[in-house]
Amino acid sequence: MTKIDAQGLYYRDLNQKIREAVAAGATEIVLDNVNGQYFIGDGINKAVTITINGVPGNDLAAFMNGAAIIVNDNAQDNIGNTMNAGKVIVHGHAGDVLGYGMRGGRIHIRKDVGYRVGIHMKSYEDNKPVLVAGGKAGDFFGEYMAGGVLILLDMFSDEPEKPKHGFRFGTGMHGGTIFVRGGVDEAKLSREVGVFDLTDEDRIELEGYLKEYCDDLYIDYAEVVQEKFVKILPRSKRPYGNLYCPMPR
Amino acid sequence: MIRSQQPTHYFQKDISNCGLTGFISTAGNLVEGNVIIKSIALMHDRGNGLGGGFAAYGIYPEFKDFYAFHLMYENGMAQQLTEEYLEQHFYIEHYEEIPTRRTPAIANPPAFKRYFVKPLQTAEYKEAIEFENMTDEDIIVRHVMLINNEIEGAFVVSSGKNMGAFKGVGYPEEIADFFRLEEYKGYIWTAHNRFPTNTPGWWGGAHPFTLLDWSIVHNGEISSYGINKRYLEMYGYLCTMLTDTEVVAYTLDLLIRKHGLTPELASLAMASPFWDIIDALPEDERQLLTAIRQCYGSALLNGPFAILFASNEGLIGLNDRVKLRPLVCAKKDDFVYMASEEAAIREICPKPDKVWTPRGGEPVIAKMQPGVI
After folding, report:
1. Between chains, do A55 and B354 touch, taking CB under 8 Å as contact?
2. How far apart are CA A30 and CA A70, in angstroms?
3. Residue pLDDT, tens place only, A155-212
4. Is B126 inside a domain boundary?
5. What is the rounded distance in angstroms from the CA atom of residue A47 to the CA atom of residue B57?
6. Would you call B187 exposed, middle or buried from its count of C-beta atoms within 10 A (0-12, 13-18, 19+)?
7. Chain B: residue whose CA lies nearest to A74
8. In this model, does residue B291 exceed pLDDT 80?
9. Rounded Cα gap, residues B252 and B268, in angstroms
10. Among A132, A46, A114, A120, which Cα is nearest to A82's?
């Protein structure tokens, strides 16, 4: 195990140290006293586990391809931008624009998430990204979502008085699946999406995602599945196809 | 480590955006400038060295009954004309240079002076009070607008009681060093790290923007600047700072001080919900928000923003209604913190009692406890 003390370290120097440790063959790296350093884990192609003690800065795990990052505190904005493979586990809450254009791997957040979570997530063949948020979400959940899976649990929140999710839910969504524990507020859904019951296949798929999530965050799976889940799907693969000029079918 | 391949691109890019941070001790505890400097310096990379600034409240207790005018002079003539103007209209209790430190980071700074003043009972003053229905505050606003607009090279950086703004071209920690901010103590501090996008990086264009004891720091851009500016001009506010954020300071002065709106209602006017959301509200709220949007359509701020606005009453954080800029808040004992990044709060408050992110258009209001100032 390689330990790096990030106290007062500039982000560029910290990331240089991480890359050097990865290149030297480290499989476990622990970063202590992290506070606000940007770009941690970006573009790392190896199956290394990076544990972060402290609050990492924006753009954590962007372009990441196979590494695992465990954050033992809260995290900030833009986690997993265009992430390809690997996993991010956050034991606190996280900010806006999580999983932007994500195309593989897992993001597991224990508590609340911000605005525009899962924006433009996509999938192709075996590459299927999954983002699970254990708390509440802000507006534009699943905006322009093109593929992959978003799961919202509303179980662990720092702000229990807030609604489960915000407005404009699924705006522009044209692919992928969103599962929500305990139902959604249909008045806040965008016109592009509809609410459906789970099929048996969905249940098996969801069970796999949730068990992995519960293992990572030490959560009791039985409690998670006490409530019924609903599925949100886009009504159309081309929601704006007729916006300017109706197209022949 | 030997690299077998040369990179095909130069990957280093200047990735920047504005950063802001602020805190309040609602119990009126005075905090040294070092604390806010530490917080904003953590977000060094959100700016590009073309603007940094601070607002501090509670820093002039010995002159707290006087308006503290911070003046910036680009030339000697501006100073001479301004001082003649001030002497004509104000009783000046005390004046001095604002202490600065020559540092290599700051090139060609303008001159800074401060004046602790009260309006003189001139014939013009009596006319305004007795026949124009104006207050002392209105008169101060009129003088600030006149100096900024008509004396070339003179700008009022701040004009409130027991507060001051310190700003200029440089990274915020360099500006803090220049103004020796570690020597001040205040119960509210805000700070800004600027990455100018649409408007020039000059000394007057750095944040905060102020009027009376209002101060604004802003991350984003006010796309509705033209509408807001023309609306404010009808009420005698003149925009002279060549940047969008200025309208926020004047809008708050108009809505809260002149029209008597609460900070909550003023926030709803500036970042009001969309019509479809208003229409779905319970009837009394629907009517209230409809009325606000109808009355204050021209005060609506469009475009992405996160702002902190402060006065001697408290500190307020507000996002645009679709939250296109970050804002994180935290509480610890009598302190409330607001910043662009949680790390900037953790840098000065490692273990907050609560950390949360407000929703778009939802103001976070931290008021001074009654009777502490």
Report:
1. no
2. 9
3. 999 999 999 999 999 999 999 999 999 999 999 999 999 999 999 999 999 999 999 9
4. yes
5. 51
6. buried
7. B342
8. yes
9. 12
10. A120
Q: Dihedral angle at the C-alpha atoms of B337, B342, B345, B348, nearest 10 degrees?
A: 160
Q: Is residue B151 part of a domain?
A: yes
Confirm if B366 and B24 have CB atoms less than 8 A apart: yes
β-partners of residue B332 are B335
CA distance A83 to B14: 22
User: How many angstroms separate the CA of residue A13 from the nearest CA in chain B?
Assistant: 14
Give B30's pLDDT tier (boundaries 50, 70, 90).
very high
Disruptive mutation site among A13, A76, A111, A156 for chain B (greatest number of B CBs within 10 Å)? A76
Residue with tokens 């702002």: B307
Q: What was the pLDDT predicted at B15?
A: 47
Q: Chain B residues with CB-CB distance to A under 8 A? A: 1, 42-43, 45, 277, 280, 322-323, 326, 328, 341-344, 346-347, 354-357, 359-360
Residue B56 and residue B189 in contact, taking contact as beta carbons nearer than 8 Å: yes
User: Domain with B258 in it: what CATH number?
Assistant: 3.60.20.10
Asked if residue B344 belongs to a domain, the reply is yes
pLDDT of residue A221: 98
Distance CA B354, CA B342 (A): 11
How many angstroms away from the CA of B339 is the closest CA of chain A?
Answer: 12
**Euclidean distance between CA atoms B296 and B279, whole angstroms:** 17
User: pTM of the entire structure?
Assistant: 0.94
The verdict on whether B18 is a catalytic residue reads yes
CATH architecture, domain defined by A95-239? 3 Solenoid (2.160)
Domain hosting B204: range is 19-367
Using pLDDT thresholds of 50, 70 and 90, give the confidence band for residue B331.
Answer: very high
For residue A201, the distance in angstroms to the closest alpha carbon of chain B comes to 36
pLDDT score, position B6? 54
Which value, to the nearest 10 degrees, does the dihedral of the CA atoms of residues B364, B366, B367, B368 take? -170
Closest by alpha carbon to B310, among B264, B352, B258, B249?
Answer: B249
Amino acid at A6: A
Model confidence pLDDT, tens digit, residues A7-25: 999 999 999 999 999 999 9
Pairing of strands A146-152, A130-133: parallel
Asked whether residue B61 is assigned to any structural domain, the reply reads yes
Element (H, E) at B308: strand B305-311
Measure CB to CB from residue B1 to each of A23, A115, A187 and give the nearest one.
Answer: A23
Query: Is pLDDT at B304 greater than 90 in this prediction?
Result: yes
The single-letter code of the amino acid at B263 is: P
pLDDT attached to residue A236: 80
Instruction: For A188, name the nearest residue in chain B, comparing CA atoms only.
Output: B277
**Total number of domains in chain B:** 1
Q: Which of B322, B326, B354 sits opposite A77 (nearest CB)?
A: B326
The answer to which of A79-88, A121-130, A238-247, B193-202 has the lowest mean pLDDT is A238-247
Q: Could you give the C-alpha distances from B107 to B14, B77, B103, B174, B187, in angstroms and in order?
A: 22, 21, 8, 11, 31
Binned at pLDDT 50, 70 and 90, residue A247 comes out as low
Mean pLDDT over B24-44 rounds to 98
> Testing the interface with A: which of B274, B354, B359 to mutate, by most A Cβ within 10 A?
B359
